[in-house]
Design goal:
alpha+beta
Amino acid sequence: MLNVEDWAEIRRLHRAEGVPIKEIARRLGVARNTVRSALNSDRPPVFQRAPRGQVADAYEPQMRALLQEWPTMPAPVIAERIGWPHSAAPLRKRLALIRPEYVGIDPVDRVTYEPGQVAQCDLWFPETKVRVGAGQERVLPVLVMTLGFSRVLSAVMIPSRQGGDILSGMWSLVSGIGRVPKTLVWDREAAIGGSGKLTTPAAAFAGTLATKIKLAPPRDPEYKGMVERSNQYLETSFLPGRQFASPADFNQQLREWLLKANARTVRSIQGRPIDLFETDYLSMIPLPPVEPPIGLSSRVRLSRDYYVRVDTVDYSVDPQAIGRFVDVTASLEEVVVFCDGQKVARHQRSWAKQAVVTDPDHAATARRMRQDLAEDRRRRQSGSRQHPDGHVVALRALPDYDALFGVDFDQPHMKAK
């Protein structure tokens, strides 16, 4: 077959220099009919390889028979059923071509977002473990948020996937942006809306921010594809090669990396997220005048064991509140306990599991209370007790009171019938 270079040379010799067809054929060593074909063709020749048979050709009827009845049958199962003797690659390639004829094609629409319209949220679980104290290392969730218009990416590690912690992470990211997107898209995370309806804390959070939390349809990860791609980007570009001394160290490294990530060029928007952020920002809702309800909270009666539990961790409380109701609140950073409006405990929050956090002052108060109780018991047993002004008060025996009131339990009429 004539190549492109010979085709071009034939046309040049004949049209530019007037060389006859016979002479061109002699110079290039080709047939005169080949020269005539080149002169009659206005387009360069295209080489097309003759189709060759493939190893999957003989097995295609069997594949189609299986797909006719089970359109979604996995490739390994099909390979087993048809006795496939080769590597999996040719089989998968052929299945990719013919399977849509049986399962149908699900086209995806191109979605565009207006400035300030939406932010997609998700939890990412990085495989790298983080030291959390108490000799423990844990895989912790990271709350990821991607703005729809500018593609600005933000993220923060949180201690658990409980509703209060997720809402605390969302508030941290939203307040870091400085304004509120009009819609926050979530999948059906149990703490946000696992049943298809927003949980009460999530609805209260959205109401305070005057925004809307929209739940994705079940089993439809493409609905929030932007944040799913952000998760993958974090997995491949942020995580590799890093070590983290603590959750705080993780978040610090993440904040520094996000500055660079948001300054990169994103192909889908043909620009840098940081350059489009101002347009996105100006179309969002202002932050509310008050902080939304976030964090973990509970109300319990403080037992003799003067500890309260938050996410499997026990925190000490002033023992003087034993027997009374206390209100426990936990943010991402600290745990605070109130009793009748008075603060009776404050601790830095531990992200470990089954840990015990004790305030030395609480332990000292408990020790002093036990000593006072033991001293009071000794005084009672010795027949005297100390008056608040310091002098010793003798304790009378009970028979003395019987005699004083003229009661004699030895008389028959005083005995129980």
